[in-house]
Amino acid sequence: MITGIHHATFLTADLAHARGFYEGVLGLQPDAARPQMSFEGIWYFVGGGAQLHLMLLPDASAGVPRPLHGGRDRHVALSVSDWDGLMARLERAGCVYTLSQSGRRALFCRDPDQNALEFIEVN
Question: How far is residue 16's CA from residue 41's CA, in Å, rounded to a whole number?
Answer without folding.
Answer: 10
